[in-house]
Structure formats: structure tokens, C-alpha cells
Amino acid sequence: MKEVLRFENVSMHYHSKQGETVALENVNFSVAEGEFVAIIGPSGCGKTTLLSLAAGLLTPTSGRVISSGVSFGYMLQKDELFPWRTIEKNIFLPLEIKRSDTPEQRARALSLAEKYGLKQFLKSYPSALSGGMRQRAALIRTLSVDPDVLLLDEPFSALDYQTRLSVCDDVYRIIRSEKKTALLITHDISEAISVADRIFVLSHRPAQVVAEHTLAFEETEPLKRRENQKFSYWFEILWKELNK
After folding, report:
1. Do 44 and 97 lie in a common domain?
2. 86 located within any domain
3. Mean pLDDT score of the chain
4. Is residue 29 scored above 90 in pLDDT?
5. Contact (Cβ atoms closer than 8 angstroms) between residue 146 and residue 104
6. pLDDT by residue (tens digit) across 198-240?
7. 50 & 26 share domain
């Protein structure tokens, strides 16, 4: 498969008046086109820094992040929908920012919204939607500019447990249907197992990749994966690696 993102010996150091903080140390991994990759690690180990480097928002202190010709969409922990804009206008926002707000692009964004159940909410404001529907709207907003790779920064962490399960299934289905590559960071082991083709495990800060696993589930839906006997097997392995 074609490689769309590679970290080569990437280190990231932050400097402040209090001194130097080493967030990442010699991180190596790659993501192939069409893959759903999850990266798990302890809280505060530098997972969000990793996504910022992937998106080009930060420059590594050393090493290289290679993603030539690839466009990224970033989905945050909270939906961050603007409350004064309708769902339709929220979805159009990236088009306005990228100055690609053409009738053709708007039509494509609206077709995505209709395809994934948002048609009746387009003229509504975010306050009228449930948490799960807001996250769906946030994903459609991210997809509106047709990115090659979706960067998912713990996108379900702000939801209650039952809603998380449903929305995780929903988001996974949309990403697969649109044939997008995805890189998810999370500290939730179950979440990673339920969606990922491969999982990378990070150590405590300064973060390094300490393990890589390829998951082979017959099931494609996250909820069905959780019912598979392999699920508990992978959970035990990853739990031990995270708590070394």
C-alpha cells in the first residue's frame, strides 16, 4: 500500500522559562493509504503533539515528518461548532477558510450531510442537536474539504459512555465509506481495538513507540469487534504494555 505519512526519528522539545520539556524522543511509525491507525499512550505523554507534527502545525526538533502531497483534516476532542452558525454554515466554514467556497464544493458538502443523516438539521443551530449528532456534524465539516488523512484527537472523550459507543461506530462507518485514511490518538484501549487496523503504543514522556500490533478481526463494525473473543486478548496485551 502507498505510504501517506511517516515519522522518522522524530523528537520534540519544548522550551520555557522553567526549562526544557522533552515530549517525544526518536518516534518512528508510518501510515499507509486507507489504513485506520490508532496510537495509544498514557495521559500527558505527547499524543496531541504527535498529531500537531503530522498536520504541520509544529516542526520537530529533530527527525523528519514526511507527508508529501497529502492533505489533512483535524477532528478535535470537542465538536467546536460555532453556536451562532447553523449546522449548514458550520459545515461550510472550512470552505470559507480555504477560499474554496464554490457552488460545487458546497453541493459536495451538502451531499455528505444528507448522506449521513444531517439533512433535517442543516438549518438548525448546534444547541438543538445531541452530542452524538454534533460530533457527526463536526466530522462532515472536516470532510467538506476532502482531506486525504483524518487526524482524530480523542474525538469521543467528551461524550458519555453509551453515546461514545454509538458515535464511535458512526464515525468509523463514515470514514470507511468515504475511503479515508485515519490516525486516531487515544488513551482508551477499548476504543483503539474497536476501530484500528494497527495500534502503536507510546511510553510515558518522553514518548517513544514501544510496541506495534496488527489486528486481524473478521468484523468491521466497532460494536461487533467488542463482542469478539479476540477483544479481551488484545485488551490484556495493551493494558500490560501501557502499564509497564
Report:
1. no
2. yes
3. 91
4. yes
5. no
6. 999 999 889 999 999 999 888 778 989 999 999 999 999 999 9
7. yes
3-state secondary structure of 164: helix
Tell me: cis bond preceding 206? Omega within 30 of 0 counts. Answer: yes
Both 34 and 139 in a single domain?
A: no
CB 235 within 8 A of CB 189: yes
- Please count the structural domains in the chain: 2
Q: Which grid coordinates belong to 73?
A: 483534516
**Is the domain of 115 the same as that of 195?**
no
Q: Which domain holds residue 104?
A: 78-147
* 213: CB partners within 8 A, 6+ apart: 198, 199, 201, 234, 237, 238
Distances (CA, A) of 229 to 164, 226, 233, 240: 21, 8, 7, 18
Assign 162 a pLDDT band (cuts: 50, 70, 90). Answer: confident
Smallest CA-to-CA distance from 183 within 75, 59, 56, 68 is with: 75
